[in-house]
Amino acid sequence: MNVLFLCTGNSCRSILAEATFNHLAPTDWSAMSAGSHPTGQVHPRSLTLLAREGISTDGYFSKSWDNLPHTPDVVVTVCASAAGEICPAYLGPVTRTHWGVEDPAHATGTDEEIDKAFDTAYRILRARIEAFLALPLSDLKNDSAHLKIELDRIGELLP
């Protein structure tokens, strides 16, 4: 099962989600990330945070939703602007959900305050991903309506 984490720039939140999901997921589930208007680079604080958490940063880069290696089964938008965009038609009838997370790339203040914004985004995404992976995935794999209900619930209930 392929999960796409989608945001506009594909430099922070979607990268954090992709790497975290791949670190925690069972072998038959994998994540990718993309942006509708990718920045072309992964934010260095995202990479630093992932490394600090013991999550590999190898191979992660900012990319467009026009160049995905696989067609996703599930699309999770992590920013409001991506949630409102029409996904490319080639994605087809995928299960879609929105897990809005504030963009740490727009955080201002001291280095400590900016790092805290990145950490907050990561903690929210990780909690949601852990809840996703705690679902009865083998059952939900073939029940997209129930999977959507559960994914929407995770996005609404968890921080």
From TrEMBL:
Record-linked CDD domains: LMWP_ArsC
Recorded superkingdom: Bacteria
Pfam families for this protein: LMWPc
Record-level GO BP terms: response to arsenic-containing substance
Record has Kinase as a keyword: no
SMART domains reported in the protein's UniProt record: LMWPc (SM00226)
SUPFAM superfamilies noted in UniProt: Phosphotyrosine protein phosphatases I
InterPro entries associated with the record: Ptyr_pPase, Ptyr_pPase_sf
Alphabetized UniProt keyword annotations: Arsenical resistance
Residue ranges annotated for the Phosphotyrosine protein phosphatase I domain, each copy included: 1-135
Name under which the protein is recorded: Arsenate reductase ArsC
Lineage: Bacteria, Pseudomonadati, Pseudomonadota, Betaproteobacteria, Burkholderiales
